[in-house]
Amino acid sequence: MRQYYFSFLKTLERLESNIAFYPTLISLGGVTFAFFMIYLESIGISRYLVEAAPILVVNNTETARSLLTTFIGGLISIMVFSFSLVMILLNQASANFSPRVLPGLISNKRHQVILGIYNGTLLYSIFTLVSIAPHGDKYQMPGFSVLLGIIFMTMSLGAFIYFIHSISQQIQVGTIMDKIFKKSQARLLKLVESEKHLETDFEDTANWNEIMASQTGYMQDVSLNVLGTLAEEHQLKIEIVPIKGAYVLKGIPILKYKGDVDDELKEKLLDAVMFSKSELIEDNYVLAFKQITEIALKAMSPGINDPGTCINAIDYLTELFALRMTKKNKSFYFSEDDEALIYVRTVSFEQLLYNVMAALRTYCKHDIIVVQKLFTMLQYLLQNREVLRENYKESIISEIRNLKIDALANHENEADIKVINNIIKHLEDLNPSDYKFDSNT
After folding, report:
1. What DSSP state is assigned to residue 434?
2. 1 partner at 20 to 30 Å CA-CA among 40, 187, 288, 317?
3. 133 CB neighbour count, 10 Å cutoff
4. Average per-residue pLDDT in the chain?
5. 349, 328 in Cβ contact below 8 A?
6. If you write DSSP's letter for every residue of 180-203 in order, what string do you get?
7. How far apart (Å, rounded) are the C-alpha atoms in residues 222 and 137?
8. Which residues pair with 138 in a beta bridge?
9. Which of 358, 209, 371, 364 is closest to 296 using CA atoms?
10. How far is CA 425 from CA 40, 234, 415, in A?
């Protein structure tokens, strides 16, 4: 039962990232409310309000028809304009920043709710207009429903004004990077808080039995609670072979286990692994490093040529790397008795830093200002109090050497070379160890 509960939560999260999720729900709410009001009109709510509070009722058929017809035409125009703005936003974000930022923009709940308000009000107005039907030689006049239509239209206009303001903010690269940073920061903090700081030597898994992937896709998430429960119940030890976010091909090992497992239990273990065709930062913080790096690289391309954005991206990467240094390179799921039951493979700090720096060195080494910023980032990480954890210091020093080689090889101006050498000398003076940043040390 617990397994199906976590599976339901993950399915709900995937639905929420769809641009049509909230508009569909709110539209259904608008239709349902319209039928509810038609029922109230049939039992005479408008006739009662005409006697008790006539100001709340639109009691003229032509006025009601004109208002609702105007609302319907206006809302269709607003919806077309709003959806066009969303498509322009997604197109510009893909062209100027990175296609991988699109899932985060599409999953913006505020925009989804606003589009839902438009559609819900439109459907409510249509059904209310249809309910103005002839009754003998007179019309059945849903006066109170028309008044509510006016209120909903006013709300839609307010939502439209907010939408214009929000969409103008969302297209700014600073807003996009800040949103990516906050999501990944929240995810990293959650992982760091959940870690048990226990020294653990997990068994060698080379000869363990393997469970092959039954489908192809990105390994979006793994329900460790479900796997842990199954491991305790059946006295198993488990290793999750791919790194979260990796693209898994059908038929390759996805789990390793030690213990007795039948076919039914294999299916339960596989069901704890969630696959997806999209990637979300909420499930995998490594994507934030990838996306911010891609924004920096796009900013340094000749077509855009925006070093300022690249420098801002490096600032965000600096904070994320400093936070990543508080996390261990190896992750385990522990039982209540602090026994390591599951070994979770993660991207090591060394590999993460190399991947980011390799890309930035390749495309930014010709710009002395950006090179200085990269040295500043590495200097900050080198002086961080977490630098000794998991041999992180050696990784940072290695990247300083690599950056020095590339920077000197791509600058011939004596002033630029002097700046680079002065930075290296300053780093050597700050470094309390015997490390030197020469390529042959």
Report:
1. S
2. 187
3. 9
4. 81
5. no
6. HHHHHHHHHHHHHHH-------PP
7. 66
8. 135
9. 364
10. 81, 58, 15
The reported pTM is: 0.76
Nearest to 335 by CA among 219, 204, 206, 234: 234
Domain segments of the chain: what residues? Answer: 2-171, 348-441
Tokens in use for 384? 């961080």
Distance, in Å, from the CA atom of 291 to the CA atom of 187, rounded to the nearest integer, reads: 15
**What are the structure tokens assigned to 57, written together?**
């009722």
Q: Which residues touch 23 (CB under 8 Å, ≥6 apart)? A: 112, 115, 116, 119
Instruction: Give me the residue label for tokens 């077309």.
Output: 80
Distance between start and end Cα atoms, the chain: 57
* Residues 292/324, Cβ–Cβ less than 8 Å: no
Residue at 251: amino acid letter: G
Residue type, 192: V
Residues of the chain above pLDDT 70, percent: 83
Give the tens place of pLDDT for each residue, 4-61.
554 555 565 566 666 778 888 999 999 999 999 888 888 877 777 767 677 767 777 7
Per-residue pLDDT averaged across 163-178, rounded? 83
Q: What is the pLDDT of residues 320-373, one digit of tens each?
A: 999 998 888 778 877 777 777 888 888 888 999 999 999 999 888 888 999 999
**Contacts of residue 353, Cβ cutoff 8 Å, sequence gap at least 6:** 321, 395, 396, 399
Q: Which of 42-56, 307-321, 393-407 has the lowest mean pLDDT?
A: 42-56
Residue 304 has pLDDT above 70, yes or no: yes
- What would the two tokens of residue 385 be? 């109090």
